[in-house]
Amino acid sequence: MEIKKSIPNIFTLGNLYCGFLSIGYAADHQFKNAAVLVLIGMMLDSMDGRIARMLHVESQIGKELDSLADIVTFGVAPCFLVYYTILHNNGLIGFAVAGLFPLFGAYRLARFNVTPEKESSQYFTGVPITAAGGILAILTLFNKHIPSVITIVIFTALCFLMVSTIRIPSLKQVPLPKYGTIVTIFLGALLFMVNIESRGKFPYLLYVATPLYLIYISYRFIKFKRNT
């Protein structure tokens, strides 16, 4: 039973480790792999909560751990990506501006944690930090084709959208097969674009992450079909 309870937390810790590795890759100027690690973190983040609900092992420590992982992977790691790829030429000011992203993200997470569970399962108040960090990672993947000013504008907008009161529909109640289809289509489109941008040479971490995630989605889809 203890092992069963630990399974979702393993995915959450994997998400956190992806954030740490992303920061390291960004510092080493391997920006594409750093961005891919944020996207892998998104995959793991989308799986831990659903696995906890599937196994009926949801816990308060799991929720708190998830928030701590999110602030690193989708707050700190993306801000380092933006700093190293765009804002580093602005010196200390650029570093200070990049640091605003995790500050807004931390406030967004804190507000989410005190939101009633029934309300948070129906919609998000403000853009989730996971989505905001993922958008910055994707912008970094294609930074050669996107003017820096556009990335900076989106970066600034995301900071304020995270702490805004805009209601965004939640995908928590979407059945896993349908959710997996949505995510698979998104990944397929992203891989296609990265393939074109990289001329067939993917950031090597995609070779590891994509098959594992598709195997997970396929397994859940087959199990769902057997139970219906």
Automatic annotation (TrEMBL):
What the record says about family reads: Belongs to the CDP-alcohol phosphatidyltransferase class-I family.
What name goes with this protein? CDP-diacylglycerol--serine O-phosphatidyltransferase
Any transmembrane segments, and where?
7-25, 92-110, 122-142, 148-167, 179-196, 202-222
Q: Which UniProt keywords apply?
A: Lipid biosynthesis, Lipid metabolism, Membrane, Phospholipid biosynthesis, Phospholipid metabolism, Transferase, Transmembrane, Transmembrane helix
User: Does the UniProt entry include the keyword Protease?
Assistant: no
Q: Which InterPro entries does the UniProt entry name for this protein?
A: CDP-alcohol_PTase-I (IPR050324), CDP-diaglyc--ser_O-PTrfase (IPR004533), CDP-OH_P_trans (IPR000462), CDP-OH_PTrfase_TM_dom (IPR043130), CDP_ALCOHOL_P_TRANSF_CS (IPR048254)
Catalyzed reactions: a CDP-1,2-diacyl-sn-glycerol + L-serine = a 1,2-diacyl-sn-glycero-3-phospho-L-serine + CMP + H(+)
Organism whose genome encodes this protein: Niallia oryzisoli
Q: Known Pfam families for this protein?
A: CDP-OH_P_transf
Q: How does it sit in the membrane?
A: Multi-pass membrane protein
- Chief location: membrane
Where can this protein be found?
Endomembrane system
Q: Which domain of life is it from?
A: Bacteria
Q: State the Gene Ontology terms under molecular function.
A: CDP-diacylglycerol-serine O-phosphatidyltransferase activity
List, alphabetically, the Gene3D superfamilies matched. Answer: 1.20.120.1760
EC number(s) reported in the record: 2.7.8.8
Q: What PROSITE patterns does the annotation carry?
A: CDP_ALCOHOL_P_TRANSF (PS00379)
